[in-house]
Amino acid sequence: MRPRYSALSLLRHAVAETPWPRAWRVPDPKPTYDVVIIGGGGHGLATAYYLAAHHGIKDIAVVERAYIGSGNLGRNTTLVRSNYVLDGNTQFFEYSMKLWEGLSHELNFNVMLSQRGQIVLAHGPSQMDVLARKGNIMRLNGIDAELLDRGEVIKLLPYLDHSGEARFPICGGLFQQRAGTVRHDAVAWGYARAADSLGVDVIENCEVNSFVIDGDRVRGVNTTRGRISAGRTAIAVAGHSSHLAAMAGLRLPIESHLLQAFVSEPIKPFLDHVISFGAELFYISQSDKGGLVFGGHIDGFNSYTQRGQFPKVQTVAECAVALIPSISRLRLLRHWAGIQDMTPDGSPFICRTPLRDLYLNGGWCYQGFKATPAVGWCFAHTIANDDEHPLSRCYSLDRFARGRELDDYGVGNWTYKQ
Amino acid sequence: MCPICGERDYTEFRYGGDATKPRPSRETADPKVWHDYVFLFDNPKGLHREYWQHVLGCRQWLVLERNTATNEPGESRLARMDVVTCEGEPK
Ligand SMILES: Cc1cc2nc3c(=O)[nH]c(=O)nc-3n(C[C@H](O)[C@H](O)[C@H](O)COP(=O)(O)OP(=O)(O)OC[C@H]3O[C@@H](n4cnc5c(N)ncnc54)[C@H](O)[C@@H]3O)c2cc1C
């Protein structure tokens, strides 16, 4: 067990001359493990942690082709919330929200959950009806939600364009106070450190190139650092799910798309909440460093390049200025892209696969970061028990064949429109 | 690249999905065949063929070859000239 972080250890280190010890080991891969998890993002690391902490399986390797958190975990806009509509999603994301609320204590690592509240805006009476319905569904499930009228939004968010000139006049919004942001890197480090202290090997710079397949059973992986045999193998590679599945001869209901994020130059505290525009897919918050962090829709065509297209910068900036005219002179500091799976109904997969001892967590579209703790919780259960967790049973691979799509936005069967 | 208008900016085009999947014939009643056609994708990391529409130009539907690992575009041709039509039906 690693030394625990506490106020006392902080003080002790302030006067000590020795640097902080590494938070997790740098192990070489062993030839065999009980469980090999592919992908050292939030999902893979959380799964390893819950397997070791709650299922008594400690002989685990997490193999990551680059460094942990180098994928979408380190690229996302860090929003967490639980305002979904469909049964299945509603309960799953609320469970995740509850795990976030206790996570810093569970991991003995401050993940900097900031429950600053999220407001989804409505720009017309029909949108108000939709939000009222959503709010009612949330409250029926014990989730906090408050419907705001125009006056309340003006009071809460005075800097939005409430003038007569606004292109999309704001007539109200739905407020979830418990929603907010979490520091993404801390999620990688916190889960890695906690898993490592329970004996999990976190192996970086180790890319999986193929599976060891014996009949209908997966028995391990071949990596850039040699063969690793595994009792059970789990895929948690975010935007690369199809790529990995193809190595096992599987085709998935997934296309890989680019999602970009943007950050402005830092300014003084200004935006206290997370705000979602109702007229376009656009959301914005302010980071602790002062930068405005925002994002929009995916670029819109398959790509594994991890490079965003320039025209998106304009669309997203237009949304930002339409909503908050006073930021029109701010300069953009950086923008970047991540590769994310897009599914025909916008919902993910946490399930067994047609191959024995191979498990899949993938198909995560926009909502994968907020899901991280619940993914770890449910995927660990799936791997340990060779059966889906009740909370994630709805995220099966055969749901389309059974007519059980979970299309929360009602977009229809287009991955690139979800 | 549009076969009619020549080289045009990417913002003039709209993506329209995977063009590699042959549409099952209308007589097919097997739900599995339709499921696979509608819901499953090869989603390759590398060469791919996909539909695009030149919305802000000649409005033709195109089939474009593109490398999804680099975004490098290859050849394009008019979708109606393409061979991916109903399986087992006259082209
Ligand atoms: C720009 C952007 C903004 C987003 N904003 C939000 C948000 O505000 N809220 C929210 O809830 N979600 C958001 N998301 C989605 C969220 O980030 C992802 O769904 C989630 O992080 C995916 O899970 P992960 O952390 O495990 O992924 P990753 O961190 O991508 O982990 C997968 C890992 O697998 C590794 N890998 C891939 N192939 C191999 C291989 N062959 N061998 C070994 N390792 C491999 C990768 O290197 C990667 O590190 C956003 C995504 C993006 C791109």
Give a description of the structure.
The complex is a heterodimer of chains A (418) and B (91). With 418 residues, chain A is of the alpha/beta class. Chain A has two domains: 28-82 and 184-254 and 345-402, FAD/NAD(P)-binding domain (3-Layer(bba) Sandwich); 118-181 and 256-342, D-Amino Acid Oxidase, Chain A, domain 2 (2-Layer Sandwich), CATH 3.30.9. Chain A has helices at 7-15, 42-54, 89-107, 125-140, 150-156, 184-197, 241-247, 311-323, 372-385, and strands at residues 32-38, 60-63, 79-80, 118-122, 146-149, 172-176, 180-181, 201-203, 208-214, 217-223, 226-235, 255-264, 274-276, 283-286, 292-295, 332-342, 349-352, 358-362. In chain A, strands 1, 2, 8, 9, 10, 11, 17 and 18 form an eight-stranded mixed beta sheet that branches. In chain A, strand 13 (274-276) and strand 14 (283-286) form a beta hairpin. In chain A, helix 2 (42-54) packs parallel to helix 6 (184-197), helix 2 (42-54) packs across helix 9 (372-385) and helix 3 (89-107) packs across helix 9. The longest helix of chain A is centred in the first third of the chain and has 19 residues, at 89-107. The termini of chain A are far apart. The model of chain A has no long low-confidence stretch (mean pLDDT 96). Chain B is mainly beta and 91 residues long. Chain B has a single domain, classed as Folate-binding superfamily (Folate-binding fold), CATH 3.30.2270. In chain B, 10% of the residues lie in helices and 27% in strands. Chain B is built from one helix and four strands; from the N terminus they run E-H-E-E-E. Chain B has one helix spanning 31-39; strands at residues 14-18, 47-53, 61-67, 73-78. A four-stranded antiparallel beta sheet of chain B has the order 1-2-3-4, with no helix packed on it. Chain B is globular and about 40 Å long. Chain B starts with 13 loop residues before the first strand and ends in a 13-residue tail after the last strand. The model of chain B has no long low-confidence stretch (mean pLDDT 89). Flavin-adenine dinucleotide (FAD) is lined by residues 38-44, 63-66, 70-73, 75-79, 207-208, 236-238, 240, 244, 259-261, 295, 338, 340, 364, 366-370 of chain A.
